[in-house]
């Protein structure tokens, strides 16, 4: 049986982390993701608290660098996101076609005047 509470993070959080790891900048990660800097910063802090370890070393006014745990997470995060993209692409093959949209002219109502 799968424990759905076993994974305490989301793919969104992993994307935010990976963008930060690749740019080594919360500002650049936020720009790349089209979100606010506080959103990225809050997510990084939440992940660090969740994992119980520091993922980045913050260098005052000189950006960031990855800790050994951060490097490991970045490597695993790339693989995880790649696998999720592959799964999404595979499952697209099973999607049923959407029902055709109804045109306005096909709508009839006793209260509708033509």
Q: Any overview of this molecule?
A:
The longest helix has 25 residues, at 68-92. Strand 1 and strand 2 form a beta hairpin. The protein starts with 10 loop residues before the first helix and ends in a 22-residue tail after the last helix. A two-stranded antiparallel ribbon has the order 1-2. 16% of the residues are buried. By secondary structure, the chain is mostly helical. The model has no long low-confidence stretch (mean pLDDT 86). The chain has helices at residues 11-23, 26-33, 37-51, 68-92; strands at 56-59, 63-66. It is 54% helix and 7% strand.
Report the oligomer.
single chain
Helix content: 40-55%
Shape verdict: globular
Instruction: Note poorly predicted spans.
Output: none
Number of helices: 4
Gap between N and C termini, in Å? Answer: 58 Å
Strand segment tally: 2
Mean pLDDT: 86
The neighbouring-strand order within the major sheet is 1-2
Strand-residue proportion: 5-15%
Largest sheet: 2 strands, antiparallel
Structural category: mainly alpha
Secondary-structure element sequence? Answer: HHHEEH
Rounded Rg: 22 Å
Topology:
Elements: H1 11-23, H2 26-33, H3 37-51, E1 56-59, E2 63-66, H4 68-92
Antiparallel strand pairs: 1-2
Helix pairs in contact: 1-2, 1-3, 1-4, 2-3
Provide a brief overview of the structure:
With 114 residues, the protein is mainly alpha-helical. The chain has four helices and two strands, in the order αααββα.
Notable features of this structure?
mainly alpha, two-stranded antiparallel sheet, 4 helices
